[in-house]
Amino acid sequence: MLTVKNLTHWYGKSEKPLYENVNLSFESDKVYTIVGSSGSGKTTFLSFIAGLDKPQKGDIFLDGTNIKKLGATNYRKHKVAIVFQQYNLLTYMSALDNIMTALSVTDSEHKGEKQYALDALKNVGIEKSDAEKNVQKLSGGQQQRVAIIRAMLVDANIVIADEPTGNLDGENSKMIIKLFQDLAHAHHKTVIIVTHDPEIADHGDVKISLENCQFVVA
Amino acid sequence: MNYLKRAMLYLTHKKGQSLLLLLIMSAILVFVLSGLIIQNAAVSATNSVTKSAGTTISVSANRNKMFSKMRSGTSKSKPKTITTPTVSNEKIKKAGKLNTVAYYNITNTASVNASSFDTVSTSTGTSGGGMGMKGGASAGDISIDGVSSTKLTSAFVSKTNKIVSGRNITTSDVNTKNVVIEKELATQNGIKVGDSMTVKMTSSGKKSLKLKVVGIYKAKSTSSSVPGSDPSNTIYTSYTLPATITGTEGKSSTVTYILENSAKEKATTKKIKRIINNSSFSVSSDDASYKQLLQPMKNVQSFAKKIVWLVAIAGTIILALIIILSVRTRQREIGVLVSLGESKFHIVAQLFSELFVILIGAMVVALLLGSFVGNKVGNQLLSQQQTTSVSTTSGSNGGPGGSGAPGSSQTGGGMRGGMATQSAGTTSAANKKTLKTLNTSITPSSVIKLGGMGLVIIALAVCVSAISILRLRPKDILIGE
């Protein structure tokens, strides 16, 4: 379980905090959606729970251990997987190589298992021929699916997604949301999706709204 | 997939960028290698020059001592005479056996009068006389230059004198009356190789000596240092004959030692002094040719060193800038890897590995082109340096051959030293050798040095660019608010 305790953050010398004393808990097997308007600080919050940045105050605990103690690199490597709006795949590689790289870097259980990666890609509609193509030759929807498979196959229990459907059409968005739901419900991961789209937010098991510097659990 | 495989994937995917980096690094390494091989070549050439420049050590009469002796030891009634000191041939040979001595040339001179033939006379101005002046002057009208070998004398080495018929005087002519005469003298008197000619000594009851002609040489020079004398009147023979004429058998007045290794000059001079052990002689060394050959080498060496450093520093800066720019364009990739939990050390290691692979390729290119470029640049540099060296030394370059070999005439009141100085002076063959080319071959040590320098260059370039990688915050790269 991921627990946020008394998280307070403000930018630079700003007198008014972005949010103050935030206390939230994220459990496994659930999809959490955090919705808020642009500039509300939802992505900044995501960067804290993803271990990409540190809040001014407060702590984040993973199964009772402070992530500061785990170390940011170690936390990112073994505990959390991130899916970005811009897919953030390694552009000089194929879809398969991207996944193999993630498995290797995170020292995952299935490290080096090419067939395992190919099977997972096939499950989301990416055949071997496409999987071995340079990733830039795939469509946006395919690239995002690759990014999700990358997050799914690594051992991390927490999957954090930042506007994962932002660049996708309706059809592809639905497919991606389905994949996230599978990650939580079939693979028993904690999925936290940050979005400004209320429709996407409704697909989560728990919806958290960020309004007036307050996180409100619906 | 570890960082090494990622590095290979990156290089194969970004072919254009990799090729560009390869070209830049190749250019840097070609110049570094050229500098290294020029430097190596200059070092080995310097060593070779040190060994073969032919520094000479001359043992000759101490003129100051000779003259002061002459002034103090003669009575007012008698004419002042001067006796050229001599040293035993045994001592000369003993010194010649020193390990550092390559070879030596003994020179003795004497003057005699022509008897069975006419001397060659060159008329100048109103002096008249023309050809066919019969010998008989008190100082002798024929110069007998005794040498160990005519081949070793400066006049023959410099090709001022050249054998046109018969052979040279060699060490096998010791204790014989074999001579080599000038072509003009031979033609004028109808003398051929194998003929005999007679000379009369200027002292010892004007005894006649029958000489056997074994060779005829042609003298290019038409002037002699002895006024009124023609160079055609110089007869070369073994060093033993003038000693016989002057009554100093088994002794010689001048010897020149040519060293194996110029670096041993001081030590050898000391040893020779000790062996000769005669204060009437001065033992002097002449390493002008060594220094003359050495200076361009040193200049080339120093220039090559500067090339290596300059290119290495410039190369590091250029590569570092390129990598810094490349890191900027690869920020997202770095961010992705960081978000996956990759350590920044591994990201820097990937960058280093990419450059290392390019370095290997560049080294191959450098090894293929470096020798050619090094050869061209090195020899161009050498020829420039030698031109400079020659122009700065022209007019003063006498070389070892110019070292004095005073005559040994014991008759009359003067010394015949000038002609001997010009004609019988010994010169080393190496003196006439100028280093026209550098042996710019690639040695294993230059390949190792090149690899080492290449590694240092990429390591420094990666270190500089690593600063920007380490400062990168993944959140700033990957998540825009």
Keyword list:
heterodimer, A: 218 residues, alpha/beta, Rossmann fold, 10 strands, globular, B: 481 residues, six-stranded mixed β-barrel, 12 strands, 50% helix
Task: Describe this entry's structure for a reader.
The complex is a heterodimer of chains A (218) and B (481). With 218 residues, chain A is α/β, with parallel strands linked by helices. Chain A has one domain: Rossmann fold. Chain A is built from 9 helices and 10 strands. In chain A, the strands form 2 sheets. Chain A has a 6-stranded mixed β-sheet with strand order 6-7-8-3-9-10, with helices on both faces. In chain A, a hairpin with a 2-residue loop joins strand 9 and strand 10. In chain A, helix 4 runs parallel beside helix 7. Chain A starts with a strand and ends with a strand. The relative contact order of chain A is 0.21. By secondary structure, chain B is of the alpha+beta class. Chain B has 2 domains: 185 residues, no CATH class; 258 residues, no CATH class. Chain B contains 14 helices and 12 strands. In chain B, the strands form 2 sheets. Chain B has a 6-stranded mixed β-barrel with strand order 3-4-9-6-8-7. A two-stranded antiparallel ribbon of chain B has the order 2-10. In chain B, helix 2 packs parallel to helix 11. The relative contact order of chain B is 0.21. About 11% of the residues of chain B have low confidence. Classes of the chains: A alpha/beta (218), B alpha+beta (481). At the A-B interface, helix 1, helix 3 and helix 4 of A face helix 1, helix 10 and helix 14 of B.
